[in-house]
């Protein structure tokens, strides 16, 4: 199973703590973590996942892997700038959004557009034309986020993505 | 001056009316209209702009120009799918969002991230972590949207984009 | 009709001369010129087209329009880096390659893959597994390049791209 | 170390054999294999790598992972169409081209542009303006290709990409 964790490249200590905890729990459940590969929330989730022997993929905006945080196992170098946000989202079966800036908001939008479940921890709320949009599933803890992300993960159509760690 | 108009590929008659009116007013002010080139709001704004002899650019997601609406003068064929949303936004000096679905939300997010002003007509509202984000400038009419979009248009750094029509 | 002109951002005086001449001839025939929007061949073709009152579109790799050459009418800002090469090619009905480096070679490859005719002036030659690939139509003058590019231009499926200048 | 293997989605039995052998040898040397994730050469190299317990990354052009070949461990879903070729190349430290069509040619061009070494097995030859370009390092066997690709692999600037398998 592949789950994305999205959030800003600079974040509060509380958000970093949450992200690290999410990374640990995902790794313990044998889930591959996909993120944007940079600092802040992305770095914290990778650090957490690696502390539990997980596998991390960082989908980077720049021209080489030099900006990847040190806990990225597989740097995917796109050179696409912010258009890489689409790639982060589409490569996942569900995403956990932690805090987040406008980049994160673009990722949430892409996920909802692709019917990829979005679990939110202290993140954006949306309303359209005065009416609330409750597509983002709000939770209050790292454990709840991971539970929801795993139970709601979108099944690939004809391809069983094997968890490398659950083999 | 180049202004973007964003909105869904299917829309209500009221939204289409608003978009057509925005297109007319932009063309009358000599502004080049950039949009995603498809139907709905995109088609209506192009139709409006062409009715006043404007110039329209459609930045398309598909592999060829066959999906462009008939009022697109210059089809830019990206083949990028939804990643073309970034290109729509970055090619503008300000954007007017009319109604809109998750694709439009991703464009709003990209614009705010790039400090490109976003003017909203019956579109998304955002809050983050319980706090309202009022970066989208809400207006109530096509005329107000066009006025705001022109007055707030971001200046290119060292390049004067001449309006072809105001020469 | 929309024709692309591709070549390196730094070029010899002879290549610049050829590109400028190609731009003049395309504009005189009412063709919209699409290019990568930067210097060298791209700048020369835009300068030529504008000297004959043509319309030029520059599809830029960077984050804003500040790198566009001064003869670009419509800067399309992609932020995609070299991935913008796909967009340059797909937006055309045929391309004229003048000289060129590896970026130009990637554009030639994309054009041939999409069955967009490629006319070559002092550009790449290809062979595969020892066998020559003569898909690039080699010509010896700007006039021949423009003639071929217009006569071979790929027709859009269901969309007649009107030349703004031939109306 | 991360090495790319590029080639067409349909290929001759000889090319498939070569690709499978390349995959086996890369896996035995602890190298992560990156490819475009589809059939032909891409499928053969993944099958080879998995037969030796390697790790494979498939960077896919489509909207979901349903087109990935069954030996892809980590499907990166780009939704970018052929623009994903840039991502395949930039994510590697060197690439091995086997046979190949125009898509492969675009990848070779991108690699050479980014100074990523290209090792060729029965693939394209280039000349520019009548002069041969010998940037593609031609070899005659899978073993020679793998040796060259490993010895010439580009070092990331400030980031040591650890081989998961050599730890």
How would you describe what is shown here?
4 copies of one chain form a homotetramer. Chain A is an alpha/beta fold. Chain A is 34% helix and 22% strand. Chain A contains 5 helices and 9 strands; from the N terminus they run E-H-E-H-E-E-H-E-H-E-E-E-E-H. In chain A, the strands form 2 sheets. Chain A has a 7-stranded parallel sheet, sandwiched between helices. A two-stranded antiparallel sheet of chain A has the order 7-8. In chain A, helix 1 (13-28) packs parallel to helix 2 (41-51) and helix 1 packs across helix 5 (142-152). The longest helix of chain A is centred in the N-terminal third of the chain and has 16 residues, at 13-28. The relative contact order of chain A is 0.19. The A-D interface holds A 2, 32, 55, 57, 59, 63-66, 68, 70, 73-80, 86-87, 90-91, 114, 156-159, 161-162, 164 and D 2, 32, 55, 57, 59, 63-66, 68, 70, 73-80, 86-87, 90-91, 114, 156-159, 161-162, 164. Strand 7 (124-128) of chain C pairs antiparallel with strand 7 of chain D, so a sheet runs across the interface.
Quick tags:
two-stranded antiparallel sheet, homotetramer, 34% helix, 7-stranded parallel β-sheet, alpha/beta, 5 helices
């Amino acid at each position: 199973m592949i789950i994305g964790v999205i959030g800003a490249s600079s974040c509060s200590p509380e958000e970093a703590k949450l992200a690290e905890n999410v990374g640990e729990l995902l790794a313990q459940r044998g889930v591959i973590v996909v993120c944007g590969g940079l600092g802040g929330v992305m770095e914290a989730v990778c650090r957490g996942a690696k502390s539990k022997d997980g596998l991390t993929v960082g989908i980077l905006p720049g021209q080489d892997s030099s900006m990847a945080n040190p806990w990225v196992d597989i740097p995917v170098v796109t050179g696409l700038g912010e258009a890489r946000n689409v790639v982060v989202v589409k490569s996942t079966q569900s995403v956990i959004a932690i805090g987040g800036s406008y980049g994160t908001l673009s990722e949430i939008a892409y996920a909802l557009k692709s019917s990829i479940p979005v679990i939110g921890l202290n993140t954006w709320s949306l309303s359209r034309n005065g009416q609330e949009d409750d597509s983002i599933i709000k939770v209050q803890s790292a454990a709840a986020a991971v539970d929801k992300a795993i139970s709601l993960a979108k099944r690939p159509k004809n391809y069983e993505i094997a968890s490398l760690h659950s083999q």
